[in-house]
């Protein structure tokens, strides 16, 4: 966004990847009309051209907002990830440019948990394989290898929002729930925390992954981990594709170590519905393959649209950064009769003192001031008399450590 206040109709918003229309409705209701919607992600060179002119961008999981792409986003004020995962954005690169990133941390939780539970039931009965055979005209009526979920152990790796929700649903079927997490977590229902990943893998009949993509979770399921699992284990991944070594999974399926799997996310995913999906897992009838649709339900998408759009509008309207993933969180009251200025700076000693001294020098009266910092940046919001705003902005831009300063309105 330019450094000065911009009329709402001039604020350009780009929504990619078929973000739900509820987002557009919400933005329009808040007075934003300059919205472009594109149903796919964009190739890097197209993205770079588009992003150069927008103030807000909304994406889902496919658009890669790298440091390089963001270096072309000179006007960008904020990023909305219309999903849970934010690994597709170089978060630190956005932060160092003073760009907050918002997401929807809960809106598709239930959808993922329901899908995983359904897949668990189907895989425990060998349904994908039997169904594939029936499609080819083969009649495979047999109880061999088919078991009930009741009494089986579900091992959840990553006991966050989705893992917890899944655990509760699985208990209603009579499953025993164990989980592994790097944090000590309060178990819901009768679930209990395993002392180590190895301990969990040894005892689970069904292993389901619900961790974020991080350096630590990269290939966290590889040959060594499959070897520890029970023979005939069911394996589910609806977290991120980078978490599982797919070749190791293919080997474990070939050797029947893994009796069935459901995979929703892949190390490399097609950019759009017209691109071929390539994976060694296509060879297996006992693997449910889904095109990253864990969170793709009407309910989830509609809620996500509303949630993220309202966070972007709130930031644009009054500077609130509540629940931004890379920014100091400031929840702000509205301001009437004053002008609001935002100042984003590197977190170094003395910035607030410099600001207050600069304002005092010109007798600029501060009606309200809010400051939050994290380890990297500081975020100050200042309400002043409207007539002082241009001068105040000039002063803010001179402050040592400034990343961005602008007048909201
Ligand atoms: N397939 C799909 O469409 C969807 C996929 N997702 C993916 O699912 C992931 C999980 O979502 P939520 O449960 O909402 O996230 P969350 O942040 O609530 O929970 C993640 C949990 O994983 C734990 N964790 C992190 N690193 C770990 C490690 N190395 N070992 C064990 N535990 C670890 C965390 O402590 C936390 O408890 C998201 O990050 C996203 O990538 C989310 C929604 C839809
Ligand atoms: O629905 C999407 O586009 C992505 C869902 C997802 O993986 C997430 O919310 O992290």
From TrEMBL:
Keywords (A to Z) from UniProt: Amino-acid biosynthesis, NAD, Oxidoreductase, Serine biosynthesis
Gene Ontology annotations of biological process type: L-serine biosynthetic process
Molecular function per GO: (S)-2-hydroxyglutarate dehydrogenase activity; NAD binding; phosphoglycerate dehydrogenase activity
InterPro entries documented for this protein: ACT-like_dom_sf, ACT_dom, AHAS_small-like_ACT, D-iso_2-hydroxyacid_DH_PdxB, D-isomer_2_OHA_DH_cat_dom, D-isomer_DH_CS, D-isomer_DH_CS1, D-isomer_DH_NAD-bd
Pathway(s) this gene product operates in, as recorded in its UniProt entry: Amino-acid biosynthesis; L-serine biosynthesis; L-serine from 3-phospho-D-glycerate: step 1/3
Annotated ranges, domain ACT: 340-409
Catalytic reactions on record: (R)-2-hydroxyglutarate + NAD(+) = 2-oxoglutarate + NADH + H(+); (2R)-3-phosphoglycerate + NAD(+) = 3-phosphooxypyruvate + NADH + H(+)
EC number: 1.1.1.399, 1.1.1.95
Claim: DNA repair is one of the keywords in the record: no
Enzyme class: oxidoreductase
Protein origin, superkingdom: Bacteria
UniProt keyword NAD, yes or no: yes
Family statement drawn from the similarity comment of this UniProt entry: Belongs to the D-isomer specific 2-hydroxyacid dehydrogenase family.
Entry function: Catalyzes the reversible oxidation of 3-phospho-D-glycerate to 3-phosphonooxypyruvate, the first step of the phosphorylated L-serine biosynthesis pathway. Also catalyzes the reversible oxidation of 2-hydroxyglutarate to 2-oxoglutarate.
Name the record gives this protein: D-3-phosphoglycerate dehydrogenase
